[in-house]
């Protein structure tokens, strides 16, 4: 592991009082407590128009540079229609192998309802297609409105799961990568 691994979180929520952002902050605080440097990329603050492969618009270069410095990346999203948010999809479309190959990725989602798991499955597929290594411990927070009191999680078990994710992205920041998976070999769009 590097002396000080660098953990970047991508917040796929634009809401001002985002539960996703609050949960990512808890995970990043744990990563920082474990010796990592951290960077929360709040996608509200970047100009990222819908992805067009012919136009490297807005803050795409800044996004790629910040993600590219990471040893580990946390992907956080609210659940929309059983999947992850469009703003996170756009951010991921601007990135590719240069940013994610051989990078550790942790996954977190929050939902208003009670079954947010498919968004984690979808993000796992995206990360694998970019040859990232996905941490086995993933966090889903259903019924998010009832989970938080201010910036803190009400239930100790929820807080422990989120903190564990922050711990794992530090522990596995430099895990030996697996050989490329079939999905990545077919993912020609992921290269710039």
Number of helical regions: 7
Based on CA atoms alone, the radius of gyration comes out at 15 Å
User: Whole-Å distance between the termini?
Assistant: 28 Å
Annotated CATH homologous superfamily? Flavodoxin domain
**What is the CATH architecture annotation?**
3-Layer(aba) Sandwich
CATH class: Alpha Beta
The largest pleated sheet is described as:
6 strands, parallel
CATH-defined topology: Rossmann fold
Q: What is the succession of H and E elements?
A: EHEHEHHEHEEEEHH
Structural class designation? alpha/beta
* Average of per-residue pLDDT values: 91
Helix content: 25-40%
What fraction of residues sit in β-strands?
15-25%
Shape: globular
pLDDT < 50 runs, ≥5 residues = none
What is the domain total for the residues? Answer: 1
Number of strands: 8
GO molecular function: FMN binding; oxidoreductase activity
InterPro entries: Flavoprotein-like_sf, FMN_Rdtase-like_dom, NAD(P)H-dep_reductase
Protein name: NAD(P)H-dependent oxidoreductase
Domain NADPH-dependent FMN reductase-like: 6-144
